[in-house]
Specification:
Elements (H helix, E strand, L loop, with lengths): L1 E3 L5 E2 L2 H13 L6 H16 L5 E6 L3 H15 L3 E6 L8 H12 L4 E2 L10 E5 L11 H12 L3 E5 L21 E5 L4 H4 L3 H4 L2 E5 L5 H4 L4 E4 L22 E6 L5 H13 L4 E6 L15 E4 H5 L6 E4 L7 H11 L5 E3 L2 H7 L2 H8 L5 E3 L3 H8 L3 H6 L1 H11 L3 E4 L5 E3 L5 E4 L11 H14 L4 H21 L9 H18 L4
Helix pairs in contact: 2-3, 3-4, 9-17, 9-19, 12-14, 17-18, 17-19, 18-19
């Protein structure tokens, strides 16, 4: 998935989009929203088929089909060869869609009921189903989607690829694999998370001349590079390692020392002045030969340090009684905490530890993947993935914490119900140790004095954006390692910070 829109762009669920449409219609001059959407999508279609060509438009039984009729009408007026398949009943179309259908017929357009066989098109426009789909697609519509996906051509989806739940990103039985998606008014979460990134292709946001955020407070926001502009003050020449905070990483049980080392290395690369790796493995080496600046101690010794600014607990922690004791002591510290991996599993398994989390006064940041989130919420992983935004908000509120629910389109949430989606990152991040690196990066930003919410959002963004830069350099997605990412993240963070330095 690629995405062309502004940083912190607003995101709305389907109920929010319906609310925006209702508010807009009250003061909207002609043309109406459907006409505007169709023209905007037709302009994108024209750009995708420079020099004209053959276009297949597939229109569905609702308002998304109405958008498709408008697209077809404009493309026909621009001398494209347009064929239209209508998978609905004109008599049952909503009012605006019926008017769009009639205008298409009035300009000489015709409707086919089945996909023509043996023909090739330069572009297919998918206007079967839009937002608010709450049932699985079957029968004739499923067959149409299968046929569209079998065509070897560019596909432009209108608002959302048909069959993709615009609220959750779940595929409703079948979904169109779009090359491009023209989405209207504002972004929807289903385009950006779960299966959305695999089905949407390049996303083009067309606001239809509406200021969505002015009409209705945004339900969510996109995380973007602007988060780094005021993240940390510029470094002074007259400073020292103590000026940039000290991080303690607690974990590294037997057989999992590498996880704690990865988190510690990431914290160093993201600017922490000092990093201590507190290990549970009593037989672990006394020095990290790959990163000798990282100070290796026993976990109990790190917990006794009085100059720490942040503690990260969980990378390679394990589920032993000792691990639980380490976690409990950390939870009682008046310091910001980043909790990951087995720290989360220990919390999920122990109501007494859960109370310690909820009673904390200092910032607590949870970084679960879907299975860890499911344990914390006492749900199945499938339930968490069925609505990732809901799950992230529920976690934040239940544990009075800041949360990132990791995965395709990571979702960040706060206890007040605010939520954000990260739109960068790639499949190369599906490898061991990536979560440990993210934990260390967030801890480093906290230790340097970043606000807890800003540290979470910036850490998530830089982590994923660094992975994208590696792919652009030919390092991944296949074979990308967690160790690759923190070096790229350091370069990215410094470049972004230098770009905002007053000259």
């Amino acid at each position: 998935m690629t995405f062309s829109s502004s940083t912190y762009a607003p995101i709305y669920r389907s109920d929010g989009i319906r609310g925006l449409e209702a508010r807009a219609v009250a003061g909207l001059s002609t043309p109406g929203l459907m006409e505007r959407a169709g023209l905007a999508a037709a302009a994108i279609a024209r750009e995708l088929t420079t020099g004209g060509g053959r276009v297949l438009v597939v229109a569905g039984p609702g308002n998304n089909g109405g958008d498709a009729f408008v697209v077809a009408r404009h493309l026909k007026s621009w001398w494209f060869q347009v064929e239209l398949v209508f998978a609905g009943d004109a008599a049952k179309l909503p009012v605006d869609a019926r008017a769009a259908h009639d205008a298409w017929r009035d300009c000489g357009g015709t409707n086919a009921s089945e996909l023509p066989h043996g023909k090739r098109w330069d572009l297919v426009v998918d206007g079967l189903f839009g937002i608010g789909l709450k049932r699985d697609i079957a029968g004739r519509h499923a067959q149409l989607i299968t046929a569209i996906n079998a065509l070897d051509t560019t596909v432009l989806a209108l608002d959302v690829p048909s069959g993709l739940d615009s609220d959750t990103g779940a595929v409703r039985g079948h979904a169109v694999n779009a090359t491009h998606t023209a989405t209207f008014i504002a972004l929807k979460p289903g385009l950006l998370t779960l299966d959305g990134p695999d089905y949407c292709g390049e996303i083009h946001v067309r606001t239809l001349d509406l200021d969505a955020a002015r009409l209705l407070t945004a339900q969510g926001r996109v995380i973007g590079s602007d988060i780094m502009k005021s993240l940390l003050p510029m470094r002074r020449a007259n400073s020292h390692k103590g000026s940039y905070g000290s991080v303690g990483v607690l974990g590294g049980a037997s057989g999992m020392v590498g996880a704690a080392l990865l988190a510690g290395r990431a914290a160093l690369h993201l600017g922490a002045g000092r990093v201590y790796a507190g290990l549970l493995d009593t037989g672990a080496p006394g020095v990290d030969s790959m990163q000798p600046e990282l100070m290796l101690r026993m976990a109990s010794d790190v917990l006794e340090l009085e100059h720490l600014n942040c503690i990260a607990v969980g990378p390679g922690l394990g589920m032993s009684a000792t691990a639980r004791d380490v976690l409990v002591i950390a939870l009682r510290k008046r310091l910001p905490l980043v909790l990951d991996a087995d720290a989360l599993n220990l919390i999920a398994a122990d109501s007494a530890v859960q109370r310690l989390v909820t009673e904390r006064s200092e910032p607590t940041l949870l970084t679960p993947h879907p299975a860890e989130a499911a344990r914390l919420l006492q749900q199945s992983t499938a339930a968490v993935q069925s609505d990732r935004v809901r799950a992230a908000i529920e976690l934040a509120q239940r544990f009075c914490s800041l949360v990132v629910l990791k995965g395709a389109g990571s979702v960040c949430a706060t206890a007040d119900g605010s939520w954000f989606i990260n739109t960068c990152g790639n499949a190369g991040m599906a490898s061991a140790g990536m979560g440990d690196v993210l934990t260390g990066m967030i801890a480093a930003l906290l230790a340097q004095g970043a606000d807890a919410q800003a540290a979470l959002l910036a850490g998530v963004y830089v982590h994923a954006a660094a992975a994208d830069e590696l792919v652009a350099q030919g390092i991944g997605p296949m074979g990308m390692t967690a160790s690759d990412v923190y070096g790229a993240a350091r370069r990215l963070l410094n470049r972004e910070r230098m770009a905002t330095t007053p000259k």
